Amino acid sequence: MTRPRNDDPRKLRELLIRGSELARSHRLSSVVVGMAAQEGDLLFPEFVDFLESALRVEDGIFRMMRERAVVLLADVTEADAEEVAGRLVQDFCDEYPSLDAPRFEFRFFEVQPEKDELRVKEVLPALFHSDLCEPTH
After folding, report:
1. CA distance 72 to 83
2. Which H or E element spans position 111?
3. How far is the C-alpha of 28 from the C-alpha of 110, rounded, in Å?
4. Looking at residue 1, what is its pLDDT?
5. Taking the C-alpha atoms of 28, 125, 12 and 87 in order, what is their torsion angle to the nearest 10 degrees?
């Protein structure tokens, strides 16, 4: 059986609520990461599958569509999240070599402990600007 390529939208709201709660309860920031690839990218769905097995229990992932995903990295700063993203892409490349290097883009939204509960309408525009992974002509 194959896994669906997108999740129930309610799961995104739950992921953001959990990110807010973890930041407040641990008094440490967390980061929501928007990941995107060009339309039709064949590696990206495989990368998202790889991420699911590589993330910690307190982290989470939401599949928006085939070329978009949102990841919650708990108890990290934005700089830490950038480092984690780079390491995960490198680990994926080491595990699954390809002729072409992956061309994924990442955007980061840091959740401070004192911040109110995150809302989808606040986070998604910050993660997925119109220029993210636009096709080049």
Report:
1. 14
2. strand 105-111
3. 10
4. 47
5. -60
- Between vectors from CA 93 to CA 87 and to CA 98, what angle results, nearest 5°? 160
Q: pLDDT for 42-97, tens place per residue?
A: 899 999 999 999 999 999 999 998 899 999 999 999 999 999 999 999 999 999 88
Between the CA of residue 86 and those of 20, 41, 48, 105, what are the distances in Å? 24, 18, 14, 11
Q: Distance (Å, rounded) from C-alpha 120 to C-alpha 12?
A: 8
pTM of the model: 0.86
CATH number of 9-127: 3.30.70.2880
pLDDT tens string 120-129: 999 999 998 7
Domain parsing of the chain, residue ranges:
9-127
Please name the residue that has the structure tokens 């002509």.
137
pLDDT for 98 beyond 90: no
For residue 16 the two structure tokens come to 């953001």
